[in-house]
Amino acid sequence: MSDNIESHLQENRTFAPPAAFSEKARIKSIEQYEEMYRESIDDPDTFWAREANELKWQQPWDSVCIWNPPHAEWFTGAKVNITENCLDRHLENGNGDKTALLWEGEPGDKRSISYRELHHEVCLFANALKNNGITSGDRVLIYMPMVAEAVIAMLACARIGAVHSVVFGGFSADSIKDRLEDSQAVAVITADGGWRRGKIVPLKANVDEALASYDGVKNVFVLKRCENDVTMTDGRDMWWEDETAKVDANCPPVALDAEHPLFILYTSGSTGKPKGILHTTGGYMVGTYATCKYIFDMQPDDVYWCTADVGWITGHSYIAYGPLLNGCTQVIYEGAPNHPDFSRFWQMVEEYKVSIFYTAPTAIRAFIKAGDQFVDGYDLSSLRLLGTVGEPINPEAWMWYYNKIGGGKCPIVDTWWQTETGAIMISPIPGAVPIKPGTATRPFFGVDAAIFDETGQPVGPNEGGKLVIRKPWPSMLRTIYNDDQRFKDTYWSEYEGVYLAGDGARTDSDGNFWIVGRLDDVLNVSGHRLGTAEVESALVAHPAVAEAAVVGRPDDLKGQAVVAFVTVKTGIETSDDLAKELRNHVGKSIGAIAKPDDIKFASTLPKTRSGKIMRRLLKEICATGKISGDTTTLEDFTAIAALQK
Ligand code: PRX
């Protein structure tokens, strides 16, 4: 992490927005950005009402924002349906025949879906849900591959006011079960399987395993994707195709309160149990609409591609909702970036003439490692804007992306935000704000970002501190589902009425924000959030394990790698086989992304006199192989001596 700061501090390269880009962009100069930013902070109600008025409401709001820290309500009194804005609005504006989705499966199968067709499919599936008794407010768990039906399922829930909770297809049966229990879901939408690197991920089988110990689910809708064998339980499991054949496509968008829950998305925190982040309808809609419009500068003829999965917040805000709210044409790809080889993305950029491309630094680093031969020869001239998300981008990866992929002519929007923030919070406005490798630059409209010291005072330029947001914003999380106390404790207890992001950051003298990384026990592995406590509780649930401490080690490719220090129970022999078994055990409890890269067996772990594991020391051992920091509170030095060896 400190290497990161050092290299960023020395980063002087600045790239002004290309004139050709700014001319056509919505926001054309830094002055224009600054003027709009000032208005958005000084008079947020006027700013957000103007944005909201570009969308369709079934009943207007009484107040734009009511702020009772830490609880916000946006567009109170209004009635709205987000899918009416994602779909019906475009049909009414004569854009029904415009392509909404250009979908490609991993094996190469393709589908092009117009806004009219998408509207039809969403209405059909929404009626299928209704026909099975699912109603407004019910929680529905979605566990799907990256097929068009994943988006259709989300929108169908939103159409009738059901609250979706999407679980990433790489998560395990145990993870599904935890999320079912926490959200008390009544239905599941899944597929027989999904393609990943030429293999079938057994999605339905994972759902079956989860449902063996949770009996709240009345209906499981199963899409045929891979035609793999699945077991269908009578009276509970039904085929998507059969259920949609039973209904018509007349499904008016239900008028919902602006604060009606839209979705719950689980994310890792610093304790073992993932948090159900709750987002609501009106504010989330306006936030994702406006950020797509200004940050991706979406224009009518753009072809946009975000490579995320709908299992993460990026796939919610910047695949399922934001681009559709803007009436954009977007590419959706089912599989892995390196299947059949690392040229897959660039071949698709050429084929679909992608103009806006949004991916994660970890993917960029993997492309660099694979070699330029996978990029050379593809025509990437359709690209006009690039984006990154999920973790700090190192300057080398940034420069490669800028030159090799963007041909030195595409601005890069490095977008900082979180599951909790719902939409992008800090990012360049591409036609206006000069960019530098490694900084997410300036706050988006309405985002009152600052860096605080321990006492809650803003720090000056170039001083590190905690990243906070001082004013409410439309797409902010409303609470942690069923745990408002945890919501208050996690985000609002350090500084009164101020949102604590959990990231360390600094600003430079130009007002750019440089994000350093998490300050809590949350790792960022390939752009995915993972709680060290989650991995530890999975490890200690294994019968051979006595204690476990998990830390992150800097990793060139993944950003952070997962290292687990493990002590075993008396009488257990440590071995490579046991390490392998433990890795698989974590994979089974959480999902493959959580498997430790390294398991280090230790006879004892370094603890303070009060019995707390000193993770800081373990981290340092991982990063440098030795200890230089303060060890005065350490209880037993032999633990450290053994580990250093
Ligand atoms: O540490 C920050 C990092 O990802 C965390 C949020 O993770 P998650 O909720 O999974 O959402 C990821 C996609 C929005 C943040 O607390 N992060 C995200 N974007 C950036 C970033 N770190 C640096 N630069 C970014 N652009």
Automatic annotation (TrEMBL):
Q: What is the lineage of its organism?
A: Bacteria, Pseudomonadati, Verrucomicrobiota, Verrucomicrobiia, Verrucomicrobiales
GO CC terms in record: cytosol
**Domain Acetyl-coenzyme A synthetase N-terminal as annotated: residue spans:** 33-86
Task: Look up the EC number in the record and give it.
Answer: 6.2.1.1
Q: How is it modified after translation?
A: Acetylated. Deacetylation by the SIR2-homolog deacetylase activates the enzyme.
Name used for this protein in its record: Acetyl-coenzyme A synthetase
Q: Pfam families from the entry?
A: ACAS_N (PF16177), AMP-binding (PF00501), AMP-binding_C (PF13193)
What are the recorded GO MF terms, alphabetically?
Answer: acetate-CoA ligase activity; AMP binding; ATP binding; metal ion binding
